[in-house]
Write a structure and sequence with these properties.
Length: 118
């Protein structure tokens, strides 16, 4: 049974930091490109960061709005992907989803809420 379970969300003040975690099971994690998406109220789901299954440690890419503030990483031995979020802004408020893709296969989790507010 495929599962992606996110954790680490919460309420944080502007300028603060959070680290999101996602643990995967039920598929060959190391063969999948892993991503974090987010969806804010009234907005479409947005790709935030991706780390590929190829390349030493994976190839990373980010949406422009988080470049320099967010870092995606993965640990294939633990079947986990992380999103380190620094210098958080109110506009980062959203539900964050972990996503796994390979060829025609796509899995995602239930999401974790991140709220940036003073």
């Amino acid at each position: 049974q495929v599962q992606l379970v996110e954790s680490g969300g919460g309420l944080v003040q502007p300028g603060g930091s959070l680290t999101l975690s996602c643990v995967a099971s039920g598929f060959a994690f190391s063969n999948y490109d892993m991503s974090w998406y987010r969806q804010a109220p009234g907005k479409e789901r947005e790709l935030v960061a991706i780390i590929t299954s190829v390349g030493v440690g994976g190839i990373r890419n980010y949406v422009d709005s988080v470049k320099g503030r967010f870092t995606i990483s993965r640990d294939n031995a633990k079947n986990m992907v992380y999103l380190q979020m620094n210098s958080l802004k109110p506009e980062d408020t959203a539900v964050y989803y972990c996503d796994a893709r390979r060829l025609f296969m796509n899995y995602w989790g239930q999401g974790t809420q991140v709220t940036v507010s003073s």
